[in-house]
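Carbohydrate ABC transporter permease, Paenibacillus sabuli. Tokens?
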Amino acid sequence: MEGRSRIRTSAGDRIFDVCNYGFMIVLMVVTLYPFLNVLAVSLNQAQDSIKGGIYVLPRVWTLDNYMYIFKEATIFHATLISVLRTVIGTAATVFCSAMVAYTISRPDYVLRKLVTICFILTMYFNGGLIPTYLLIRDLGMIGSFWVYIWPGLIGVFNLIIIRSFIDGLPESILESGRIDGAGDFRTFFSIVLPLTTPVLATVALFSGVYQWNSWFDVFLYNSSHIELSTLQYELQKILQNSNITSGMSGLDGMIKGMTGSQSAVTPLSVRATMTIVASVPIILVYPFLQKYFVKGMMVGGVKG
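Tokens:
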């Protein structure tokens, strides 16, 4: 025991610990600083931010930047549409991608290679913006909420990730289900889905971030339907308006605030505030999914 204690407290171990802790502290600072800087700018008085020198704490505290964004009457309804789009789109994408991935992973499916090649080709070739728009129009999805869901229902990258994970599952687990009389649907729902929870959580995060941040499809298909506008699209319009106002009124961009008094905002402050507003929901959700990135369920599945 004394020998082990001496080994653990040797000079080499202490040097390693110091270097390790130092490296982790530097990594933490490098990772957190950009976010803290943007947060500080969003909470700082816009005209003062132009001077620079804002690091991790605001110099002149204010909530005018957030008041300018949230004064828009449509912002709360747009947030609701974004939440619905993210939840429904993520759930549908994960479920359908997992089902297709399981299908093309089965060795007894004779067309699995052909179907896989057809999916992969779509990653390298596409019809372009105009043909895609014409297709969406002919399908009658312009002016519809489902234009946010159906076109991206199956993500090829997500499909490949899930299929690779399923291919790594021991065949003995799936065979045991068939021996017990389980069909493909029962095997998929009772065995494959529980075992693939880590990769499904990863794909859900990818899909959720995409759905939450997407705004260009709103501009293309639903820009004239304000009831279907999303948070990201409304934020883009606010930023565009702040740029126009800044160009018309000079660098200060004096814009009337909620009370009717002159409240100074700038494109810089609006961009920083938009970044925080758009990032906070994802940051709040990430801790609940992060554990699945490092935790596998294979051991528990094999023992069962």
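The CA atoms of residues 213 and 232 lie 6 Å apart.
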